[in-house]
Structure formats: structure tokens, C-alpha cells
Amino acid sequence: MFSKKNVQYEALSLPDRFDFSEQEMLSRTKAFLDNMQKRHSVRQFDTKPVVEEVIQNAIKAAGSAPSGANHQPWHFVAISNPEMKKKIRLAAEEEEKAFYAGGGGDEWLKALEPIGTDESKPHLEDAPWLIVIFSQRFGIYDDGSKFKNYYVPESVGIATGMLITALHQAGLSMLTHTPNPMRFLNGLCDRPDHEKPTMILTVGHPSTDAVVPAVAKLKKPFSEIATVFN
Fold first, then answer.
1. What is the pTM of this model?
2. The domain 39-217: what is its CATH number?
3. Residues 157, 67: Cα–Cα separation, whole Å
4. Average pLDDT over every residue of 82-100
5. DSSP secondary structure string, 45-80?
6. Rounded distance, CA 69 to CA 18, Å?
């Protein structure tokens, strides 16, 4: 929680520095690329448990992400409780039924066909952990007064990407899930109204019969995702 007394600029010497050679940089980025290209979104999870400290460390890594004015406008709710996971599954499937019954619109539903999804979401119970990610429109000082947060979607998006990366580094699989609308998550997770749920991240080990849709392996080439000016 921020204190109004501490809202002032103070310069600190850079606490961490790295001085890798060009070859080391190439080697490290290549190793990281190779590892991240092994990341797959799966929908079939093993019930094998994952120790809580692994989840906590990944969330701490996400919490180190850059954010607008360093306001850190996020909150992560990690859930392993079976009853809570069941409630989330039932509520999410209610929203998904309406979506797949036509609420999502023909174009969106057509786009999802190669992914092979439907309203059934057993992974929300099977996986050992769910992490619900909330964005905060404003923060609260230690005296109870409010302050505005800036670049909230961008900041939360960066933190979420770092969370996914940290979990992948631990050898875990994930599925990003965004039922629409998601306001039911505020009540289930006991979060205030000024927080907006942005994603349910399903986390665990893939089951022995886990599959991925073939289309998920089709990635745009570098020339389509980047432009370089030398």
C-alpha cells in the first residue's frame, strides 16, 4: 500500500548490472527462444499437485513488471481450493453456453472453429491451480484516499506475460481463459468493485492425453511481426 508521505522522487544507483559479451547475449536469447517455443496452451490437465511456493514465486516475478507510474495496478488470486474451482467452472460455463449459442457472433465463433473449443471447461477443475488476474482502475493510499492508475491494460498485460513466462520456466502448462462477462469473479474471489477481472489462467501439468490444435503451431514469420530499421 502506498503512503502519501513517500510519494517523492529519490535517485538510487542502479542495483543490478549485466555485461554479457555479444556471444553470450546471442546464446542466452537463443536458449530463451528455444524454450519459449516449447510453450503450448493445453486444455487437458493432470490433477497432479503443484506446490504453492512455485505459484507464489511466479506471481512475485509478475509483480516485478514495469507499470504506469509504478502503480502496479494488478491483483492475482491463486486458487487451489476444489470448491472454489468448481464454482468458477460452473459460473464460467454458464457464460460460455450463451456465447457458443450465438452470443459471440458468427465471425468470432467461426474464428474459434480451428481451435476446437466449446462451452465445456473441465480444466477449470482438473488443473491444480487457477490464477485470476484483476486490473485496478485506481489505488488506495494508506489513509484510505484514492489515486488514479495509468496505462492499466498495458501494465496488466505485461505482468500477465511475465507470469506466463515464469510458469513456463517452471515446466508448467497454462490456458488463458476469458469468459465474457467475467464480473462473477469479483464475488467468488472477494475482490472489490473497482477491480476488473481480465483473465483466468489455468495452471498445472498437461495430462498424458493432452493435445493442441494444429493451427496453434502456425506462427507468423519474423517478417510479419517485426520491422527493423538499421
1. 0.94
2. 3.40.109.10
3. 10
4. 93
5. B------HHHHHHHHHHHHTS--BTT---EEEEEE-
6. 25
Q: Rounded CA gap, 181 and 92, in Å? A: 9
Question: Tens digits of per-residue pLDDT, 142-151?
Answer: 888 899 999 9
What separation in angstroms does the CA of 4 have from each of 70, 72, 143? 14, 16, 8
Helix axes 22-36, 152-169, angle to 10 degrees: 90
Per-residue pLDDT, averaged over 176-200, amounts to 93
Q: What percent of the chain has pLDDT over 90?
A: 78
| Closest residue by Cα to residue 196 from 83, 73, 90 | 73
**Is residue 152's pLDDT more than 90?**
yes
Phi-psi group of 151: left, alpha or beta (phi > 0 → left; psi -120 to 50 → alpha; rest → beta): left
d(CA 162, CA 133): 13
Cα torsion angle, 6, 190, 168, 171, sign: positive
95 is written with which cell numbers?
457464460
Going by pLDDT thresholds of 50, 70 and 90, the confidence category of residue 1 is: low
DSSP structure class, residue 205:
P
Question: pLDDT tens-digit profile of 57-89?
Answer: 999 999 999 999 999 999 999 999 999 999 999
pLDDT at 181: 83
State the virtual CA torsion across 61, 66, 67, 73 in degrees, nearest 10: 0
Residue 32 phi/psi, 5-degree rounding, is -65, -45
